[in-house]
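pipeline: protein-struct stage 2 | run 1193 | Subtilisin-like protein
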Amino acid sequence: MQEQPRSPSDQQPVNSGRPIPEHAALLAIKLSADKHNDASIDDHEVLASVLENILPGVSQGMHIEPLISSQEPSAVTALVERAARMDPTYKPVDFGAWYQVHLQPGMYKSHSSASAASDLASGQELNLVHPSHVAELARRVEEPDEVECAHAMRPVPPPMPVPNPEANPREANEIYHAAAPQGIDARYAWTRLGGDGAGIGLVDIERGWDLNHEDLRASNITLISGVNQDFLNHGTSVLGEILMTDNAIGGVGIAPNCTARVISQWRTSGQYNTPATIIDAVAHMSFGDVLQLEAQEVDDNIPNSPFFPVEIKDATYEAIRLATALGITVVEAGSNGSQDLDTYANPAGLKILNRSSPNFRDSGAIMVGAATSSVPHDPMWFTNHGSRIDLYAWGENVDTTTIESEGTYISNFSGTSSATPIISGSALCVQGIAQATMNRRFSPLELRRILAIDGTPSRNGTSDKIGIMPNLRAIIDGTFVQSAPDIYIRDFVGDAGSTTTRTSLESPDIIVWPTSVVNPQNSFGNGGEFFNATSHDVVVGKDNHVFVRLLNRGGSQGTNINVSLYYSQPASLQVQALSKLIGNTTVSVIPARRFLTVSDEILFAASAIPVALGPYTFIAIAGNPDEPAPAPVSTMTPKDFVKFVGNNNRVAMRSFNVVSAPPAGVFRAPIHVAEPITKTPKIATVALPGAS
């Protein structure tokens, strides 16, 4: 007897936890740092006082809890600290200052406010069932100094569809798999090792799915947390685009062999909470995984608000930024609002989605627009657009899975809902190939840039403001495999650039020299890479000269690499030691294919050298805008710091001694012609003037 498909209730809980409260007003409020960090003040009392001053009586029956409750505070703090170590541009956020406040529905008379809307002046009533009144309350809550920001929280439907290989019978319908300019050329990616997303993790954030669909069941998709609650047809269609199994049934997903999980915005507490969902997802993900945000938001300060990307809400933005700082690629639906996002201003009047605005804030996510399936591709009438949109894909006529009554498949899935998984699938294919062929994964900013290069423009190009559609063939044959740099500093002579658990304070690529060197590349470059004694003690009272060597195991040259050099006493290898900056230098070009490149000198001035004689340690860190230099955080222990060095191939250490006088005798200087790293080193012994 043929196995019958199970109902959604058979595969994951559809209603677990407390009942979802009806008509409750829910605010997300972030306390100011000075109030939250004052141990003598109770956060709950501050929040109650602020709300009571605005709406007398509202604190009766009020319930306050942390906004992020699915992860322990210490776990969230650890994520923030790790993000700061990995991404120096990330500004750490105290998620403990965020609270969710549940207010009893009803009518409340407001106190006066200098900025209150005219229809909500002193003595007027706020109806906490009405979204615009809840939004007004959030705006009023932001006025006191005790509060940094606040916004309303309520369920918003996902970007809904807008009406309008060959062994798998429906794959022929998946024209978005086809070669550019029609599609993304997923079929070409499948011919490459890892091009089916194998080895890369995907987490889909929305509200519900049928994980037992006949063409999804074999993917063994699991629910991380939350309640598989509603919009199951939407989630099922989204997953089908990426994960339909290559099993001679139905179609084939873009990245069918990735490792997929889902997580619901409906929390087990019964609340709808997007930022908490993101952070819970991030806690279960690794660098280079893909987090898909199939969700959208409204701004209740705008009458009849259209749909906007979820990052317009401050707490959600901070959660996304944490994810990208941790190296997780976030693919975010641009939403079905028909809006020019360049014109959007948040409640504070800031154009946070306009790249030309001084108030623009970049979460690091890939934001997705929608276009027609026909060539040339035109923006769909419903898609949001603007400079913040990075990439686009088909927003109509997408063939995928569904649980709707007309059958188990659908041929007209649409919206930014259909476009977003095409971009997520593209990201998974590229990461899969990178991992399989280069033993690395791209950072979110690298991947966002790679997916846009040599892609398919829309009909009117940049004036359409929906970005570029990826062309996987062009990426694989050109930009991707051939052009991706991967800069590293060796921890030991045989280091090939992979992260390692090996602890070493003897990087051969941090070199101290007692005098200036006319041509550092000629003296210390290719040919001397196997010589680990090319360094000297640091002499107190004299200027010393330090050089850092870098390698590039990628397929194209790296540019504008900043190198920072610090020193520390070995017993205190913590971030506090990194306040002892020796200096910086920029290497303009690092050729591909492991050509050993030497930086200009970093002067270790006599005035900066510690007077106490004895052992110390250099720490060299490299990075550029595309791949920012990793940075440790202030709470890192010595053990954690050593692990930090091992886990980052752009960080290296070397021990050295501060001595009172230079050693006597002749110095050994490598003199040779720069050659490929595979050549036998040619070392000559010469006497250097002034070296005695």
